[in-house]
Amino acid sequence: MSDEKDKEGERVTVRRRDFLRKVGVGTIGAGATLATPLVGSAQADSETNDEKRKARYKESDHVKDYYRVNRYPV
To answer: Which regions form coiled coils (predicted)?
Structure first.
C-alpha cells in the first residue's frame, strides 16, 4: 500500500489491513471529540396544535419565478 521507514531508516511496506486499522482508529477518535459538544438535552415542541396545522406555504415572487424558470404550470 505505502512505504514507511522504521527505526533504522529502512523502508517497511505497510499492508492494506494495517493501513485500514490505523485510519479506522483515527476516525473513531476524531468522531468522539467532534460529537461531544453537539450532545445536548432534548427540548419539547413549543407549537400548539393549531400552529402545527396552519398553512405555511406562501406563493411569493421568488416562488413564482422558480415555477416560471422551471416551466411549472401556474
So the answer is: none
Residue 29 lies in a domain: yes
Question: Residue 23 sits in which domain range?
Answer: 1-35
Number of domains in the chain: 1
Measured distance CA(46)–CA(52) in Å, rounded:
10
Does residue 12 lie in a domain region?
Answer: yes
Indicate the SS3 state at residue 47: coil
- Return phi, psi of residue 63, to 5°: -70, -40
Q: What is the pLDDT of residues 15-26, one digit of tens each?
A: 777 777 777 766
Residue indicated by cell numbers 401556474: 74
Tell me phi and psi for residue 44, to 5 degrees: -75, 155
The verdict on pTM exceeding 0.90 is: no
